[in-house]
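stuck on this one:
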Amino acid sequence: MRRMLIANAAALVLAGCATASGDGRGTAASAELNLSSGSSAGRATISERDGAVRLRVEATGLAPGVHGIHIHSVGRCDPPDFTTAGPHLNPAGRQHGRDNPQGMHQGDLPNLTVGTDGRGSIDALVPGATSAAALLDADGSAIVIHAAPDDYRTDPSGNSGARIACGVLAAG
């Protein structure tokens, strides 16, 4: 009985060590997302595995519907319009969108669908990223959620509308 208790306790300790990314490698960066009012809009995490960078976003408190979401090139999120986050992350100088023959930016991501409960999530690979280090450069990066869907084509922002939520990526 004592061995079973010890084994169960060890399993609980190991389960508590699981990472937010679920890949066993840890979270390389994360961001608390906020609306311009300062209210929480969820959390984003970046993890690395096998030469790829994965972004997971759990959004809350948003209007139902489809929203563009991107990685922006500057780690600043000054309300109310979050323009301090700069343009989309685009180190290769490409045009916007996976459907654009001259695209896509490294910061281009799939749209975020938000349900009637105000919640939505995505789990996507960051295009062309092999490590989180580029996202954590001297001026950082931000995750920005937009009011409208990304059309995956129109340069520079996919006609995704106003910036409604933002979070600065920070290591760990």
Q: What stands out?
A: The chain has one domain: 2-171. Helices lie at 2-16. Residues 1-24 have pLDDT under 50 and may be disordered.
